[in-house]
Every structure is written in C-alpha cells, then in structure tokens.
Amino acid sequence: MKIVILDGYTANPGDLSWKPLEQLGSLTVYERTAPADTVARAKDAEIILTNKVIIGKEEMAQLPLLKYIGVLATGYNVVDMEEAHRRGITVTNVPAYSTDSVAQVVFAHLLNVTHRPDHYAIQNREGKWTHCGDFSYSDTRLIELAGKTMGIVGLGNIGQRVAAIALAFGMKVAAVSSKPADKLPAGIRKVSKEELLRESDVISLHCPLTPDTREFINASTLRLVKPTAILINTGRGPLINEQAVADALNEGRLYAYCADVLCQEAPAADNPLLACENAFTTPHFAWASYEARTRLLDIAIGNVRSFINGEPRNVV
Asked: What is the pLDDT of residues 42-90, one digit of tens each?
C-alpha cells in the first residue's frame, strides 16, 4: 500500500519519526507540496496524509486509487468532505492533541500583555533599570488578572481548559456556548454574545470557523467592547475582521490584540495588524509544542493502522 505525506515538515521538522508508517506501506514524505504538484505526487497513493494541502473535488477526480485521507490536524476543511463521502474515501482527523499547548499560549499572550516580561528584559539589557534611579521601574500599564472577567467564545476542549486556567488565576469566566447553561463546568456563566462583548476584560476565541462565526469580531461588534479589553484569537484568523481590529487598536478602542492565527498565513507584508503597536502576533505555533506534535503523529499513525486493519477511527 502506497502512503504519501504531502506536507510533513510542520508536524515533523526532523525531531520526530515517520518510521512506524514505513511498517504499514511504501512511504514517501514531502516537506511541502505546492497545489500544482499535488496530483502528480499523490497519483499512485492509496493513503494520503495532509495538513494544509487541499484535497478537493478536482484532485480526487485524478486520484482513482485513493482510499484514505488522513488530516494531520483537528480541522478538516482542506478536504472536500462531500466529494470524499461520494467516492467512498475515508477521511480522519486528529482531535484534541493540542489542547494543553494552545491553552498555554493563550496565557503566554495574556501575561505578555499584562506585565510585558520580554519588553522589560530587553530594557534591562539596555540599562533602563540600571539608570532609572529607583528600585522599581516600569513604563507600561501593569494589569492584575484576579477579579477580571474572561469571556470565552466556544467551550470545546480548548475553551474549557482556558476557562479552568482563568479560574485558577481568580478570574470570573463567562462564555458563549451551544451547551445548555446547566451543563457548563462549575464557575462558568453562560451569557449572550452581546453580554460577553460588553462585560469581558479579556475575550478569547475558541469557536470553529463557520458562516455564523466568520468575522465574529468586526467593526460593529467592536463598538460593544471595552476600550481596556484584551482580545485573543488562537482559533482561526477569519473569526475577526483584521482591518476593523487594527482600526480599533489605532484609535484606542481596544487595548490589545493577541493572535496566533491570521486570515492569510504566512501574512502579507501589508497586513494592517503587523504595524499596530498593541497587536501581538505569533506564527501559528500554539499547536506545535514537541509534546503536542508527538501526540499528533502517534494518533495520525494509529488512524492509518486502524484503517488498514478494517477498523477506522477518528472518521469525519
């Protein structure tokens, strides 16, 4: 059985091993694949693994041997699911492998905004503290989290973990969720979208990207947000309108924006957020801790093994 990995580099830049897959079939690994090369590289494959390479209707039509697509991620929007189902192609994903890693990055961003440790470490190396004349030095607003309200949009695995950490910091937690109020974990108050936007000191986005959630944060909804609020997006770039957020930051209507995802990745040089002083963007790495990637590969390889054994798991 021929197995092709179309874009293996981000999941495994060389510190992990694909060897268990070699025991399941003839394996070819490409670090990256351009759209124009997808069909040529996968033409003889019965099993494809992809992270961000799109396998759509056009590609499937030219891959008659294809039986299985394994997505090296939780989201599977890179696959035309309707066409895959029509052709009897099994599609699997890797759920819940990066929960702890992503939740950790949410608070890395939040703590960076509230106390700016990197900013002060750099200033100390430049001698600011040495020459300030006082035992203590600061030139930014320092913010305590205890007692503040964390508004969470989406209470899946990551949203719930972020809520638990927020509660441990002494924060109050409100959430927009499809779950009934009496089914929410202890300490979480269910609110409407408008209540969350008005009341939250920190807003963290963890909902899937759907037609209803696309640009959840836009020029209109930003009018409801406190000017002191911190907005965090580790979900999907298009959950926000980037120009509207940049305008709010530049006009002092939003205190800070922290994002690990953007609408275009890698970003265009003229992305409006890149020039905003209080926009803090990281390069979509929240999922990519060594531990999370180890889980990702273990689950993805297990998915392939289960499919070959006739007992597919994590099917979407």
From this structure: 999 999 999 999 999 999 999 999 999 999 999 898 999 999 999 999 9
CA 121, distance to chain mean position in Å, is 28
Q: Residue 315 pLDDT more than 90?
A: yes
What does the pLDDT read at residue 75? 87
pLDDT of 312 over the 90 cut: yes
Helices (H), the chain: 19-22, 38-42, 57-61, 81-87, 99-115, 117-125, 157-168, 193-199, 219-222, 242-250, 290-308
pLDDT digits (tens, 9 = 90+) for 300-311: 999 999 999 999
236 is catalytic: yes
Burial 258-267 (b: 16+ CB within 10 A, else e): bbbbbbeeeb
Q: Is the pLDDT of residue 249 over 90?
A: yes
Which three-class secondary structure string do you get for 196-265? Answer: HHHHCCEEEECCCCCCCCCCCECHHHHCCCCCCCEEEECCCHHHECHHHHHHHHHCCCCCEEEECCCCCC
Longest CA span, the chain: 74
Rounded to the nearest integer, the mean pLDDT of the chain is 96
Among residues 116, 206, 284, 295, which one is catalytic?
284
Based on the residue annotation, tell me whether 195 is a catalytic residue of this protein: no
178, 191, 102, 112: which is closest to 149 by C-alpha? 191
Q: Quick check: is 265 catalytic?
A: yes
* Cross-strand bridge partners of residue 233: 205, 259
Each residue's pLDDT tens digit, 109-167: 999 999 999 999 999 999 999 999 899 999 999 999 999 999 999 999 999 999 999 99
- Choosing from 236, 242, 293, 295, the catalytic residue is 236
User: Residues 126, 251, 265, 291: which is the catalytic one?
Assistant: 265
Burial 15-43 (b: 16+ CB within 10 A, else e): eeebeebeebbebebbeebeeeebeebbe
Residues 6+ apart with CB under 8 A from 217: 203, 205, 231, 233, 239, 240, 241, 244, 245
